[in-house]
Give the backbone structure.
Amino acid sequence: MKRFFAALCTAGTVAALAAPGDKLVKLARDGDAVDPGYIHRDVVGLLAAMDVSPRLRERFDRTGEWNVRRLMPGEQLDSVSDVIVVARGNAYIKSVGRAIVIAANDVEIDEGGDVVVVAGGNIRFRQGRLTPWGGVFVARGGFDAPWLSHAAVHAARNATLSHASLDVMFYNTPWARTAIYGLEQRSGPPLFDGVAWRLPAGVTRTPAGADFQFAGERCEPGVPMQDIRNRIPAMATQKLPCKAIDDMIVTCDAKKSEELWTVHGCTNWFAEVVARRRGDVVEIAFAPPPGPHGSQSIRVEPAPPAPGTCAPDDASPRCTLARIAAGGSFTDSEKPVSCPEPVAATSNRVDQLQRIWSKSPGGGRSKAGGAEAASFFELVQAARILGIDWSGIAATAYDHEAFLVRVFRDAAGTPGALVKELRVSAQPKPVVDVKYPPPRGRVYLFRADTAPIDLAAGRYWLSVLEPIDSAMQFIWTVERDSAGPCGSGSASRKTEREPWASLYSGLAPRRTRGYSFALELHAPPR
């Protein structure tokens, strides 16, 4: 009996002391149902063990709200975002953005960024030029990428970067020496059991300097660096709404023998410039070129207009360019957005459902445990709700799709006390009449019969949410006949613990455009 308890205690101690990388790989290998909160907890522990920079770590603070996608053996994914992918074997993904990928064996990602990858085998990754933040990569085997920008890597075997990289931290990792601006090497506790590596003496940190810095793959031979240094940042700032450049990424088109320089700036903007050599001539132009000979021309600012010819709110191209060239904004005086006072309801008909789309469908995420959207409605007399119709975008939608419906009382123009919450089974109908389909997923009309919801006359807010365990990636589309930010009223909140607010700065929630839905109303029982 003593031996039994000793063995039991030893097993518990080993499990408790498992290295952070092993814990996640074991989770993928076991194939059991996993909770995103537990994965988030273990990923946070992994990033803390590596001492990843706060700016990189905070990009994954809310991953506990994401769905978990199980990858079957042999299955390949085209595109994933805002999701946790767990693979019992290998994981192959063509495009990824803002995700966590955990695999028992190898992981291969054709293009992407903003990702945490943990693999029991090797990792092969190619960062996309439009995603300046690479992510965190932890492999029990090796790691291979052409280049990286803003990333942290642990590869027990070795890491290989073949081109210039920017702001990369290696943890317990031997790596092939390539140019890295802002290189950092660290050693510490092992991330996998039985795998340890110590930092070579005298090698710790190579800080980023004031020199011209970029990440990516240049064409060799290509345009001289001096020409790049002198012209591309200056051209890019002409396209950016401010003069601040954050990162520069270059990719080589081997077939055309030209470089595409993607310049990120102003936090979430980018501009692109093409550089190439044609014989002895260097050509640098905005991408895509404006015409057949655009690649041979450099932009020349137009002559400034005569004083007094441009009104402060003149949005013509000539006056707009003059203001930007003078260091101003698109308009000298920004007009505040205003919406009319909401009109009181005159009947018990609640129908703002969008059924036909002549423009691109817009909307907002609404998911239990995460961001929640709500739309205003008013009843002039008591009614019973027996059904709800709404529209939205979803990556996938099947018969009897589960949704969460909430009804709130109005509290001075925002959702107040919760009146009713119920889980409904919705029937999706794909919408064919969409002039500009969304880039991901498709538009659906959803219909759900509900248990009776009896409401007195008054003002209310409706919230339709994707359940926390769903992989639908639901986006609730905006109401019919909405023009700009104005409409019947909407509100949102980042989590259930945070207050409701307007989607538009300076506009009260009751004045903003609502979401697409209709209520099946009946007279209440007597």
